Amino acid sequence: xxxxxxxxxxxxxxxxxxxxxxxxxxxxxxxxxxxxxxxxxxxxxxxxxxxxxxxxxxxxxxxxxxxxxxxxxxxxxxxxxxxxxxxxxxxxxxxxxxxxxxxxxxxxxxxxxxxxxx
Length: 118
Description:
Largest sheet: none
Structural class: mainly alpha
Number of helices: 6
Shape: globular
Oligomer: single chain
């Protein structure tokens, strides 16, 4: 090292580094972990809930597979055409976090799904 010239490879004070970096990465961490979800993710999450609730409707188990699928598709289309579905979708986009989304998508039942977002 030349006298009076500081080396560019000098160690960085690592204790001070988080103070400068945290404001820059905090918004990204928040969005990545618990930020709001997209419209497509809301649709997928709501579809999952509808699929679970429609699957539990009485009488579907007694139908042949093709008829049961047609009945499920019809029930799903009917629910999605209801004006309340659009309000729920808008609320989902505004309020549901990524953590709630991940929980709901893994939920094995409608009750567990609901617990994820309550």
